[in-house]
Write a structure and sequence with these properties.
By secondary structure, the protein is an alpha+beta fold. It contains two helices and five strands; from the N terminus they run E-E-E-E-E-H-H. Strands 3-4-5 form a three-stranded antiparallel β-sheet, with no helix packed on it. Strands 1-2 form a two-stranded antiparallel sheet. Strand 4 and strand 5 form a beta hairpin. The N and C termini lie close together (11 Å).
Amino acid sequence: MIELTRLNGSLLVVNSDLIQYAEAAPDTTLTLLNGEKVVIRESTSEVIDLAVAYRARIMGEASRYSSASKVSRPGDALSAIPAEKNGKHGEELDSGVNYVARRRAIQD
């Protein structure tokens, strides 16, 4: 989730995975996957920076659950399943990626 600001100054928290696209014309408008549009104060580049930082935080948290802490491609940690459920404990699996536990809710 990323924190953004509506034009009226109120705080808005958005799941960055649900952003379909962002437009700057002249205000930044986010279009979500469900078709909802949200107008915000932040620029499109700020939205990108916030989304990337959020994803990095998620991947960092997920890597804490891997004995080898190895994520070879962006998104691997987010789509991985717990190694224990495969009868393996953190070793390299067929794909060459150490699987990690499912992501958990992150609270500041």
